[in-house]
Write a sequence for this structure.
C-alpha cells in the first residue's frame, strides 16, 4: 500500500502542481479588509478540496475574524490515533510590488521553483498535506483518523483561533498536530522544529503638534515627533544589541550545555547568514552564536517606520506624528502579557513630556517547545530518514506560530513542526518561492509518516 | 494719485479675488515631475498678468529646472530707482490630502479666509504685488522702474535660480528686491523681516539585508536598518536639544544684547507657540528664548521617515532599508557647504560597519541679514505705518529663502522681506489659508510703498 501510494503521488504531480497554482492566484491577504472576498474564496477552495478527499463534516466555521475550514475522517476507528493537520490559507501582503519579477498572484515556474505569494508560506505546505492524504486514501485505507484545521489568520497572529479552539475542544480533540508551517533547514537538511519563539507585535505612535508645521517657522521650539520616536526606539537596544525594556530578560531560560551543542550542529552560521542576507557584517549579542540568537534568544525589531514627507524630493515639514511598528520575539519562559507591561513601563519612564504617545498591542503568541519523544515527531523523523536517507536535525527556530501555543493550552496537544519550505524561500519578501523537488519529496515524506503511525 | 490708486484697489477687490482663485486652481507642485504641465500653465498665467499690466519684455525664460517669468517697466527713467519684485508660482505638495476640509486646488472662502494650497505661500502675495502695481499704473504713473522675477523652484530650494541670476546680471540689475514671501507677525503686527535662516536638506538612506527578511527567521543576527537609522538620527541631538554634528556651532554668530532685546519684543513666545502648535510643552535649547531659537539659532529636523511595512495591521518583516529626510536650518555665518561636510563626518564616525549608508544633499541656501537702513525697508516701514497706524517690528525669522542669498551674492541687492501672510496661515500644512482683510491691507501698503520711493 505504501508503494501504491508513492506511485499515485508520483503519477499525479502535474495535477498537484496545477491545483497549487490555482489556489495561489487567490490574493487571500488577511491583514487587509479589502481582500475579505478573497479570504472567503480561499476558504471555499480548501473546503472543496477536503470534500473531494472524502472528508466528512466539512464546514467553513465562523470566528471573530476570518473563518476556519474544518473537515474530518474518523474511519480508522477509536483504537487508532487521531492526527490533526494544521494549515492556513491566508498570506502576507505582497508589497513592495515593484520588486517582484512576476506578479505575486500569477504563479510562475522558473527553474526548479514556483514563484508566488503563499507558495512557501504556506499554501504549498497545505497542498502537500492534502495530496499525501489523497495518495494514501486512493491507495487503500488511511491508518489514522484525520482532523483538518485550516485557519485564515496566521499572518495576523491567529487571534481568533484561540477562542475557536477553546470553544470546540471536543470537535478538535487529537493526539498531536502535524504543522507543516515551519519548513526545513535546507534542501538536503530535513528537520523537525522543536522550539519556536513567541511574538508581541506593537504599533507605537508619537504625537507632537496638532498639525504638520513649517520646519523653518517653528523648528527649534517643538520636539519633532519623528525625532522623539527615534530617540525612544533607538534606546530600546544598548550598544551590545541587548534589549533595554525593564525586566525583558528576567524570564529568559538559560541555554543549557546540551542545547548549546544542538545549536552548534545547525547549519545556520555566520557564513550562511552573511550569504543569505547580504549584509556587510552580522549583528547581535556577541556572547551567543548566530543560531542561538535566532532560536534561543529574544529580540526587538522595528518592522516599519512612517512620518512626515516620504515622497520624491523635499518638503520642509515638522511632522505632526510619527509611527513605528515594533515586534519582540520571545523565548521560554517569556509571555506576550509581560512584554506588553515591560514596553509600557519603558515608555512611561523614557517618553519626554513634550510629546504624547500611544502604544497599540496588535497581536502575539507565547513561545513553545515540543519533545523529541512525541509519537508524531518519531513518525515524521523515520519518514524523513526513509526519503532523505538521513536523520533529521531538531532545531529551535525564530518564528512564531500562535496555533502551537493555543493547541497546547486548550487540547494538551503538542505540535509536530516541520514542512518543506527552504530557508531561502523568501516567505514575507518579494519573489516568495517554493522549491518543487522538495515539495514532491514532502508529499512522499507525509505518505511515509501516515503509515509509520499505524 | 495715491488716493486714486487706493480707490481703484478698493473698487476692484472682487475681481482681484476672482483672479487669485483662478491661479490657485493650478496644482503647480514643483517637486513632483507629474505636475510639470501645471508648472508651465502657472508660468503662462503669470506672464499673461504681466502683459496685461503693460509690462515690457515679458518672457518665460528657461532655467535648468522650472522656468522664470520675467517682465519690466522702465518708464520712470534712469534717474528713478529700479525695484525688483520677487515671487514664486510653485507650491508645496498638498499631502496629507485627507486632512483638507476642502480640496487644496479648489479655493474656498470660509469666514475671513481663502483656503487653498499656495493661498498664503505665495500666490496670494504675488497677486497683492501685481494688483498694487496695477492700481498705481491705472491711476497715473509708476514713480519707480519695476522688474519682475517670478520663479518656479522656491519650494525645492531655488537651485537653478542661482545660475539664472548669475547669467542675467544686467537684465536683473536693481537697487533692491521687494520679497513678499516672509509674511508678517500678526493681523495687527506689521513687520519686516531682517534676518532669515539658511537651509541644508538631506536624504539619508540606510541599507541592511539585500531584501526584506522574515523577522523571526533572521531577527537577532542582522542589524535592522530601521533601528540603525534611528540610532544614527537620534544621536544627532544631545539631551539638551543641541545638534551633535561635529563643528555645527563653530560659525554660529553670538546673539548680541541688542539683538536679544529685539527678540524679546517679538510676539513669538511660549504662550503663543503653545497655542499655535498644540504641543504639551515646548522644546529646545533652554538657554535661549523661543524667538531666538527660531530666528537666531540653527536646528536639525527630521522631515520624513520611511521603512518596512507601514500599512494597516502587521507584517513581521526585517526591512531591507530605511530612509530619513533631514534638514538643518542655518544662521550667520554657517553655510550649507560646511553643513554637508559636518553631516558626512558625523555619519563616517558614527555609522556601524554592519550597515551601508548613502547621504544625498537635496538642496540648500545660506542665511541672510538686511539692514533697517535699506531704502526699501524704510519705504515699506512708512507704508505700514500709514495703513496700520503703527511702526512695524523687525524680526529675524526661521524660514529659508534661497533667492535672498543669491540676489545679494550676484547683484549686491538686499531684499526687503515682508508679505501679508499670517503666522497661522498653515503654509506647508493642510488647510493653508490667506486672511483676506490682511491681503487687501497688503495691496494698500504696497501702493503706499511705491509712492514712498519717489
Amino acid at each position: 500500500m505504501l508503494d501504491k501510494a508513492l506511485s499515485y503521488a508520483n503519477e499525479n504531480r502535474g495535477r498537484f502542481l496545477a491545483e497549487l497554482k490555482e489556489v495561489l492566484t487567490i490574493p487571500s491577504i488577511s491583514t487587509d479588509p479589502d481582500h475579505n472576498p478573497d479570504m472567503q474564496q480561499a476558504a471555499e477552495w480548501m473546503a472543496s478540496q477536503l470534500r473531494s478527499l472524502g472528508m466528512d463534516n466539512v464546514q467553513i466555521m465562523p470566528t471573530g475574524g476570518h473563518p476556519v475550514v474544518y473537515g474530518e475522517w474518523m474511519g480508522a476507528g477509536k483504537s487508532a490515533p487521531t492526527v490533526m493537520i494544521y494549515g492556513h490559507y491566508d498570506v502576507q501582503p505582497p508589497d513592495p510590488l515593484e520588486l517582484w519579477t512576476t506578479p505575486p498572484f500569477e504563479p510562475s515556474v522558473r527553474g526548479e521553483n514556483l514563484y508566488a505569494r503563499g507558495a512557501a508560506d504556506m499554501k504549498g505546505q497545505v497542498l502537500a498535506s492534502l495530496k499525501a492524504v489523497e495518495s494514501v486514501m486512493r491507495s487503500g485505507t488511511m491508518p489514522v483518523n484525520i482532523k483538518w484545521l485550516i485557519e485564515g489568520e496566521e499572518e495576523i497572529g491567529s487571534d481568533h483561533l484561540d477562542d475557536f479552539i477553546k470553544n470546540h475542544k471536543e470537535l478538535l480533540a487529537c493526539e498531536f498536530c502535524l504543522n507543516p508551517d515551519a519548513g526545513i533547514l535546507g534542501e538536503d537538511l530535513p528537520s523537525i522544529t522543536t522550539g519556536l519563539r513567541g511574538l508581541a507585535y506593537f504599533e507605537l505612535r508619537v504625537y507632537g503638534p496638532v498639525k504638520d508645521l513649517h520646519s523653518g517657522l517653528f523648528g527649534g521650539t517643538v520636539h519633532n515627533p519623528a525625532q522623539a520616536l527615534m530617540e525612544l526606539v533607538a534606546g530600546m537596544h544598548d550598544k551590545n544589541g541587548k534589549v533595554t525594556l525593564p525586566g525583558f530578560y528576567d524570564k529568559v531560560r538559560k541555554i543549557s550545555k546540551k542545547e548549546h551543542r544542538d545549536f552548534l550542529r545547525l547549519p545556520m552560521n555566520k557564513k550562511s547568514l552573511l550569504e543569505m542576507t547580504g549584509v556587510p557584517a552580522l549583528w547581535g549579542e556577541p556572547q551567543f552564536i548566530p543560531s542561538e540568537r535566532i532560536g534561543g534568544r529574544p529580540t526587538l525589531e522595528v518592522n516599519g517606520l512612517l512620518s512626515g514627507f516620504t515622497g520624491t524630493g523635499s518638503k520642509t515639514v515638522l511632522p505632526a506624528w510619527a509611527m513605528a511598528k515594533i515586534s519582540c520575539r520571545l523565548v521560554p519562559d517569556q509571555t506576550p502579557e509581560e512584554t506588553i507591561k515591560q514596553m509600557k513601563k519603558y515608555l512611561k519612564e523614557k517618553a519626554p513630556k513634550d510629546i504624547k504617545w500611544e502604544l497599540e498591542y496588535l497581536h502575539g503568541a507565547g513561545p513553545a517547545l515540543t519533545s523529541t519523544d512525541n509519537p508524531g515527531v518519531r513518525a515524521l523523523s523515520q519518514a524523513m530518514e526513509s526519503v532523505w536517507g538521513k536523520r533529521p536535525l531538531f532545531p529551535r527556530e525564530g518564528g512564531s506560530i500562535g496555533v502551537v501555543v493555543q493547541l497546547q493550552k486548550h487540547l494538551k496537544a503538542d505540535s509536530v513542526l516541520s514542512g518543506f519550505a527552504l530557508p531561502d524561500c523568501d516567505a514575507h519578501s518579494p519573489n516568495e518561492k517554493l522549491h518543487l523537488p522538495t515539495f514532491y519529496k514532502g508529499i512522499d515524506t507525509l505518505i511515509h509518516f501516515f503509515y509509520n503511525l499505524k
In short: Residues 119-137 of chain B form the longest helix (19 residues). Residues 199-249+298-364 of chain B form a domain with the Alpha-Beta Plaits fold (CATH 3.30.70.360).
